[in-house]
C-alpha cells in the first residue's frame, strides 16, 4: 500500500512538472509573439512615416542604400520619467528656428528638436552646434517635458507626431562600425520609449549634413 501511494505521488509530481513546463513554454511563446507583432506593426508605421519624411529617407538612402521599416530592429523599451518643469517655449515667431517647431495635432504645444542643438554663440549671431541633442515638448500649459537627450554620440535629425499620443524621432548613432540610422518611438500618454536601430551602418557620413540640408536659412558649418 505504501509503495502504491509513493508511485501515485511520483506520477502526480511528474504530471505537475510537465504541466508547468508546458505552461512556461506557452507563456514564453506568447510573449515572443506579442513582441514580434509589435515590431511588425512598427515596421509598417515607420514605412508610412518615411514616405512622409522623404528628405530624411533619401538622405540616408544615398549612404546606406534602399531600406524599409523591416530593416529596423527593437533595441529596448523603457519608461519615461515624465518629469516636467515650468518653462515656456523660447522659440518665438521671429526666431529662424520657429518654422521647424512640430505642433501637437491636438493643440497641446509643440515639440522642438533643434533649438538645443543649434545655438547662437558669437556677437554676429552665427549659429553653433551644441555637442548634445534634446527633444523637448513645450506644452500649452507652460510646462516643458524633456522626451529625449543624447550626448555627442549621435544626433536627432527629424521628428513627427504619428497621432496625439505618439511622437517619432529619426536620427543616428555613431558607433565603432560607423554611423547607424536610429528611430525612437515615444508614447507620451503611456510614458514609454522604444528605441529601434537599422541593421546596417555607413562609414561615410557628415555629422551635420542633414541639418544643413533641413535648416536652409542657417549655415551650420
Question: Can you give a write-up of this model?
Answer:
- The structure is a single chain.
- With 221 residues, this protein is of the alpha+beta class.
- The protein has one domain (35-214).
- 31% of the residues lie in helices and 31% in strands.
- It has 3 helices and 12 strands.
- The strands form 3 sheets. A 5-stranded antiparallel beta sheet has the order 1-12-11-10-9, covered by helices on one side. It has a 5-stranded antiparallel beta sheet with strand order 2-8-7-4-3, with no helix packed on it. Strands 5-6 form a two-stranded antiparallel ribbon.
- A hairpin with a 6-residue loop joins β5 (118-120) and β6 (127-129).
- The longest helix has 51 residues, at 2-52.
- It starts with a helix and ends in a 7-residue tail after the last helix.
What is the secondary structure topology, with strand pairs?
Elements (H helix, E strand, L loop, with lengths): L1 H51 L1 H11 L7 E8 L4 E3 L15 E2 L6 E3 L5 E3 L6 E3 L3 E6 L4 E8 L3 E8 L4 E9 L4 E9 L4 E7 L10 H6 L7
Antiparallel strand pairs: 1-12, 2-8, 3-4, 4-7, 5-6, 7-8, 9-10, 10-11, 11-12
Compact summary:
This protein has 221 residues and is α+β, with helices and mostly antiparallel strands.
List keywords for this structure.
single chain; 221 residues; alpha+beta; 5-stranded antiparallel β-sheet
How much helicity do the residues have?
25-40%
Residue-averaged pLDDT, rounded?
A: 84
Number of helices: 3
N- and C-termini, Cα separation: 90 Å
What general form does the structure show? Answer: globular
Look at the helices and sheets and give the structural class: alpha+beta
- Describe the sheet with the most strands: 5 strands, antiparallel
Please report which band the strand proportion falls in: under 5%, 5-15%, 15-25%, 25-35%, 35-45% or over 45%.
25-35%
Query: Radius of gyration from the CA trace?
Result: 24 Å
> How many structural domains can be distinguished in the coordinates?
1
Strand order, sheet with most strands: 1-12-11-10-9
> Total number of β-strand segments?
12
Amino acid at each position: 500500500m505504501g509503495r502504491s501511494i509513493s508511485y501515485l505521488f511520483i506520477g502526480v509530481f511528474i504530471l505537475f512538472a510537465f504541466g508547468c513546463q508546458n505552461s512556461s513554454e506557452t507563456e514564453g511563446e506568447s510573449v515572443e509573439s506579442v513582441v514580434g507583432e509589435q515590431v511588425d506593426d512598427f515596421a509598417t508605421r515607420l514605412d508610412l512615416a518615411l514616405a512622409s519624411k522623404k528628405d530624411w529617407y533619401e538622405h540616408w538612402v544615398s549612404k546606406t542604400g534602399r531600406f524599409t521599416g523591416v530593416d529596423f530592429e527593437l533595441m529596448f523599451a523603457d519608461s519615461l520619467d515624465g518629469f516636467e518643469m515650468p518653462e515656456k517655449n523660447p522659440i518665438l515667431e521671429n526666431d529662424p528656428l520657429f518654422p521647424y517647431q512640430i505642433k501637437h495635432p491636438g493643440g497641446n504645444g509643440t515639440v522642438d528638436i533643434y533649438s538645443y542643438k543649434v545655438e547662437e554663440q558669437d556677437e554676429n549671431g552665427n549659429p553653433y552646434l551644441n555637442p548634445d541633442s534634446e527633444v523637448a515638448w513645450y506644452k500649452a500649459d507652460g510646462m516643458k517635458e524633456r522626451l529625449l537627450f543624447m550626448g555627442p554620440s549621435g544626433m536627432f535629425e527629424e521628428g513627427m507626431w504619428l497621432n496625439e499620443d505618439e511622437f517619432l524621432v529619426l536620427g543616428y548613432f555613431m558607433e565603432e562600425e560607423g554611423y547607424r540610422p536610429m528611430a525612437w518611438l515615444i508614447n507620451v500618454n503611456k510614458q514609454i520609449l522604444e528605441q529601434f536601430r537599422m541593421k546596417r551602418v555607413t562609414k561615410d557620413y557628415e555629422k551635420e549634413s542633414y541639418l544643413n540640408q533641413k535648416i536652409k536659412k542657417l549655415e551650420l558649418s
